[in-house]
Amino acid sequence: MRIMHLGLLAATLAFPFAHGDRTFGQAADIYSATLMEPNAKTGEVSTEELRRILADGSAIVIDARPRAEFDAGHIPRAHVIDAPGDEQVASVERIAKGDKAAPLVVYCNGPYCQASRRLADRLVASGFKNVRRYQLGMPVWRALGGPTVIELNGIVRIFKADRTAVFVDARAPEEFARGSLPGARNLTAESLGGTLKQMMAGKLTDPPLPLDDFNRRIVLFGRDGAQVLGLAKAMSKRPWHNVMYFAGTFDELAAGLQQKGH
Predict the structure, then answer these.
(1) Residues with pLDDT less than 50, the chain
(2) Does one domain contain both 215 and 244?
(3) What is the CATH number of the domain that holds 250?
(4) What angle, 0 to 180 degrees and rounded to 10, lies between the N-to-C axes of helices 115-125 and 88-95?
(5) 169 with 61, same domain?
């Protein structure tokens, strides 16, 4: 199971997970688990519930982390606050267009991160009526195969600081052949299964995905967000768990990197 690759997740499981009246050990599965923190002013959503929310757009998802962490990887369609503590509520009000009855889901960096709880408490105190938290946060979302978006500034920082990162171009081979990012590998959602069989059989001298370390950062990009999301979803059922995708177009990514000197 992919979560076995994360030591943090093992530590997370030490918390009293629950779902409804059931403890974690009795819950239907890990996807329906929550922390069920004591003395909380707001309820929580499980990974399964958050996936439904993202699919039907039934709540505004708020990332309580700083902009740099958001840029490095966030839940799709989440909004970043990017404001000091005393201005965060006003930022959420703008995102919600002044509707304090709007359903909100706030998250941060997992069980040990209290940014989402602090923000949720401030929102309730300011009059927001429907605030919940995904307190499992980014570590568990990523470990359970949740798609993760990276922003251009996050990619720029990786280019500078992480020489082990693998960049994967999800476009068709003929598009890739006309030019891509320096050092990028080519892999499509359609070719993933066959490529992995060849990799496991040792038939590729330069495989597009790392076999020496399943923790290595993998950045996916493609013609547009829809195309690369297909590969990201396919990768979510594979053992590589530090995978993120750029939701913009290849032209936007290439132009942005060139503008920033890469």
Answers:
(1) 1-25
(2) yes
(3) 3.40.250.10
(4) 70
(5) no
